[in-house]
Amino acid sequence: MRLTQGTFSFLPDLSDTQIGAQIEYCLRNGWAVSVEYTDDPHPRNTYWDMWGMPMFDLKDAAGVMAEVTACRHAFPDHYIKVNAFDSSHGWEALRLSFIVNRPKDEPGFALERQEGAGRQVRYTTRSYAADRPSGERYGAD
Amino acid sequence: MLARPASTLDIDALYSESRIGEMLEALERDLIGLAPVKRRVREIAALLLIEKLRRSVGLHAGPPPLHMSFTGNPGTGKTTVAMRMASILHGLGYVRKGQLVSVTRDDLVGQYIGHTAPKTKEVLKRAMGGVLFIDEAYYLYRPENERDYGQEAIEILLQVMENQRDDLVVIFAGYKDRMDRFFGSNPGMASRVAHHIDFPDYAEDELFAIAGLMLERMQYRLSDDAAAALHDYIALRKSRPQFANARSIRNALDRARLRQANRLFEARERGLSLEQLSLIEAGDIRASRVFGTEGEGQ
What we know:
The complex is a heterodimer.
Chain A: H1 16-28, E1 32-38, E2 49-50, H2 61-74, E3 79-86, E4 93-101, E5 109-115, E6 121-127
Antiparallel strand pairs in A: 1-2, 1-3, 3-4, 5-6
Helix pairs in contact in A: 1-2
Chain B: H1 4-17, H2 20-30, H3 35-56, E1 68-72, H4 78-91, E2 100-103, H5 105-108, H6 116-127, E3 131-135, H7 150-163, E4 169-174, H8 176-185, H9 187-192, E5 195-199, H10 204-218, E6 221-222, H11 224-239, H12 245-266, H13 274-277, E7 279-280, H14 282-286
């Protein structure tokens, strides 16, 4: 099941040229771009691991693309996303975040039902990938 | 031969479109002296223009080598020319953004193991799409300490200079003799730097013209006596140690401004005319310790 988190996730995967163009747009707006990765695809997992520091004062997308390439090289079977943070007063928030790398095989999520008191049912989702310990979740076999 | 009329048109269009003429004219106008430097910049600009034209008609000779080395004494205009060079490269489309990132050893080399690579890469990322200006580049290489982290910075630089030639241009700057030694002990670096430009020291009349230009920008005027005093000052200052060409002149003028302000302040009961506010008198310059006896100051 294809993971749909962040901007552009319902579109086909972006090519490197397209990713570069998006980063270019972020830098033009003065946003700080950062790269993050994870192998826990749960939608409530907001804390992905940082790939280096957020990059301030960049003028050109080539610097970010070099980091994206390096991160892909280190974690070919992880989710990798590019974030753009707007530090201007009143925003101080992420303005754009999109996935730039995903595992070849995405097993998807199970819906679990828990019966509570008085026939009440509580629902939760669980990623099949998260059954295995971190680091062995994708492409281990 | 048939293509000749068309390509003649092309070069004119490219010339005016890249605004390279304007930039070279501004270089000629705003920088005094430096004739050999201007000639080299012109040559490089011509090479880049022709290379671009060749590319547009499908003639390929690989990307032209763009990394440069500026050598010369302090205050001879290396940084200023680097800035102009960045806008020329930007105008011709050899760098995408055209910013100039000026760094020294401290910005590239870390303080402990594993600190240098991220630091250097950080700087390189900031310079992508523009020009990286490394001032006093020879400090990167310290042969007396084999564990010096400068070598690591040099290796990362070399790698990027070679593999990402489209992304940034590196300009090394520093004293001539030390740069020669730096390139001598880093043959990999020397072979990747294509253009070596040497900045000559300014002659006395050139320094005087520079002073005139600076004063004009700061909206000051010299009285006739003061102009004579400045002539004498330049001749004396030039023979002193630690003479830094245009930078020394700027500092001298800043001190003259200070004395002028002090003089006006002390004579404030007598009232001030608009004229006096921007006039520097001979006394403001002659008070410099350069005119003093040998024992006074240094």
